[in-house]
Amino acid sequence: MPIKVLFICHGNICRSVGAQYIFDKMIEDGHLDHAIECESAATSTEEIGNPIYPPMRRALEGHGIPIGDHRARQMRRSDYEKYDLIIGMDSENMYYIDRIIGSDPEGKVHTLMEYTDRPDELIDDPWYTRDFETAYRLITKGCRALMDHLKENELA
Questions:
Q1: Burial class of residue 131 (count of CB atoms within 10 Å of its CB; 0-12, 13-18, 19+)
Q2: Catalytic residue positions, numbered
Q3: Which domains are assigned to the chain?
Q4: What is the pLDDT of residues 64-82, one digit of tens each?
C-alpha cells in the first residue's frame, strides 16, 4: 500500500495544490509512484470547483512543475481514515483541520514545515501576501524535507 499524503490550505487553489504538484514531481523524479500518493484539499468551501489560482500556476510552471486539471475540494472527516498524513500550511489550517476531523489519535496531522530545520515556520497565504515566489520556495523546502522523512522512516 502506498503512503497517502493530503496537503491542506484554506481554499485549495494556492498552497495545498502547489504542494501537491511539487510533491507529485518529486514522486515522479524519484520513481516512487508505487510508494507514495498525494492529493490536496481546502478547509473552506469558498473555492470548491475552482482551478489553481493563475499566479500560483505561473509560479509553479516557471519552475518546471507540471500542472494537472485541478479542481478545489473541501476536506472531509472521512479523509482522516483515507490518508496517512494530513499536512497543513499555517495555524488557521491546523485549527480548521481539527474542527473537520475532530481528534488526531494516530498523529497524522502536521504542518509542512515541521519536517524542515525551521519546524515552527508557517507558509503565509500568497492570496493575501501576493508573494507566490516565497510560497513556492517554502513549499518546495517543506516537500523536500517531507520526502526525505518518508524515505528515511517509511520507505526504508
A1: middle
A2: 9, 15, 125
A3: 3-153 (3.40.50.2300)
A4: 999 999 999 999 999 999 9
- What one-character-per-residue DSSP string does the chain give? --EEEEEEESSSSSHHHHHHHHHHHHHHHTT-TTTEEEEEEESSSTTTT----HHHHHHHHHTT---------B--TTHHHH-SEEEESSHHHHHHHHHHH---TT--EEEGGGGSS-TT-----HHHH--HHHHHHHHHHHHHHHHHHHHHHT--
Mean of the per-residue pLDDT values for the chain? 97
Fill in the amino acid letter for 97.
Answer: I
Q: Which amino acid is at 79?
A: D
What's at 98, amino acid-wise?
D
The answer to whether the CB of 5 falls within 8 A of the CB of 32 is no
